Amino acid sequence: MDIQTFAHTTAGGWGRAFPAWDSPATLVMVFGASRRLDDPGPLSDLLAAYPTSHVIGCSTSGEIRGTSIDDDSLSVAVCRFGHTRLRSTAAEVGPLAADSARAGREIASALMADDLKSVLVISDGIRVNGAELVRGMNDVLPPSVVVTGGLAGDGDRFQRTWVVAQGRPVANWISAVGFYGDRIHVAHGSKGGWDPFGPERVVTRSQGNVVYEIDGRPALALYKEYLGDRATGLPATALLFPLGLLEKGAPPLVRTILSIDEGGQSMTFAGDVPQGHRVQLMRGVFDRLVDGAADAGRETAGAVRDGAPGLAVAISCVGRRLVLGQRAEDELEAAREALPPEASLIGFYSYGEISPAGFGPCSLHNQTMTLTHFQEL
Question: Which of 79, 81, 61 is nearest to 71 (CA)?
Fold first, then answer.
């Protein structure tokens, strides 16, 4: 398994030649700013250099390479496998929750095979209901297949996202790559670090990922009471105070707000918030978030095989970055320190993370640090 990571910046361009590794056994990952749609030249050059490879990527709320974060770059990893078969697919998605579930089933069916070991999935970050996407994939794939990935970002603007699908950057699509054979080894970890506060409440009216009432009151009005002066910055400021879905005996499943409707006083989340569910507001504390990233790194490293090189893909939520501010790189350093020294690190800040919670089928998470380590043995 050969791995190279590099970046394109406005000031320095690519700064190096692309590795001449184009082949059906090559995976190219690229993460960049949403504005790259307005200046597609560098991304087009990269795509043109790998016509037979499997390319996956998306827009971000910050590009990760090593322990550095950029906001106007293209962060790239090129991996050439020696003993692993790859297959890629993509599906367009419509505005309804059922469209996200259908796309998930379509993607999983296209990739399903007896020797499928793992799927990396990257989704549009605004129109896709991530929980339904995951549910559709879980309907088809057995629990033995490790599914990880994330939802594309757009800084804190929530206006447009793109995904590389069918060889070009497009909105409203989901793309995925499957990894096949006995030589691919995948380790993963996902941790949060958010703390609940305030009273527990009940979702009294919701439909899918749209919440209309909490405790019988308009959801948006109640949320604004908690935000106070910060309510003027919605939906971006809601990233500082996500909603936790409470399950007895389990950590809260955190949900991020994607948009608000002033007329209907509703809020749209990245995943489902079921009616009748108990919820509680969450808040981030710097040390707890960094500790969560370190825990994700240790959980991942615990399943990595010693000696062989690997590629670690870090997908962290934009809300974590907003809370951490200028010290956001601290969580990357904490995660990187826990990983083996042979691992290369790339990734992005997202609108949602997809990963198993420990073992079992994948779930949609928000506000977590999620790591996936690919290694060929």
Answer: 61
Q: Give the pair of three-digit tokens for residue 55.
A: 């390319």
Helices marked H in the chain? 41-49, 97-111, 130-140, 219-227, 286-301, 318-324, 329-338
**Could you tell me the domains of the chain?**
2-191+287-376 (no CATH), 194-283 (2.40.10)
Encode pLDDT of 22-59 as tens digits: 999 999 999 999 998 888 899 999 999 999 999 999 99
Rama region for 329: left / alpha / beta (φ>0; ψ in -120 to 50; rest): alpha
Span 144-161, mean pLDDT? 94
Calpha distance 75→14 (Å, rounded): 10
Query: Could you check whether the bond before residue 235 is cis, i.e. omega within 30 degrees of 0?
Result: yes
Q: How far is CA 296 from the centre of its chain?
A: 14
| Helix axes 97-111 and 130-140, enclosed angle (nearest 10) | 40
Q: Give 185-205 pLDDT, tens digit per residue.
A: 999 999 998 888 889 999 999
**Continuous H helices in 91-230:** 97-111, 130-140, 219-227
Tokens of 243: 């909603």
Residues 6+ apart with CB under 8 A from 35: 72
Consecutive H or E run containing 170: strand 168-170
Contact between 119 and 146 under an 8 Å Cβ cutoff? The reply is: yes
